[in-house]
Amino acid sequence: MRKSKPKKRYLLPDPKFKDTLVTKFVNNLMYDGKKSISYNIFYDAIDLIAEKTKEDGLEIWKKGLNNVMPGVEVRSRRVGGATFQVPTEVRPDRKLSLGIKWLIKYARARGEKTMTERLAAEIIAASKGEGAAVKKKDDIHRMAEANKAFSHFRF
Asked: Cβ(43)–Cβ(14) under 8 Å?
């Protein structure tokens, strides 16, 4: 067990929207330190979303991200000789990072031609409550619901 928690690092807001959440998303989207490419993909995806939905792209993205963030998850807990899947609440920072990672992961797995199009399509689907990232969240919630009987093992 470590003696002290590491200091929380705070991110700088992004240049276009002045939002730290965008920076966090772009950092997760980035490959091999190519941040400018990551920003271009994200901004083009937001523009594409605004074009397709005729609404504010950033608001659609935030709505989609909120639809993907899980409320509960299951954690493995050994009691005696058995391992139980114990449902637990998700911390706010973990909730956000899981939502971001799932959105990017399932956008990458889509069939569109460019990453911009994939990301835009996944975000639009997530804002409507559809798509693979929302399905993942629903699966996690369903698993937690199924293992509700073991919630007394919570630490």
From this structure: no
Least confident of 1-10, 37-46, 83-92: 1-10
Dihedral (CA of 130, 21, 48, 105) sign: negative
Q: How far apart are the C-alpha atoms of 141 and 147, rounded to whole Å? A: 10
Residue 120, domain CATH: 1.10.455.10
What is the structure's pLDDT at 79? 82
Tokens of 74: 């299951």
In a domain, 1, yes or no: no
**CA 69-75-76 angle, 5° bins:** 160
Task: Tally the domains of the chain.
Answer: 1
Task: Name the burial class of residue 60, with classes exposed (0-12), middle (13-18) and buried (19+) by CB atoms within 10 angstroms of its CB.
Answer: buried
Range of the domain at 42: 20-153
According to DSSP, the residues that pair with 84 across neighbouring strands are 77
**25 falls within a domain:** yes
- How far is 86 from 122, CA to CA, in rounded Å? 30
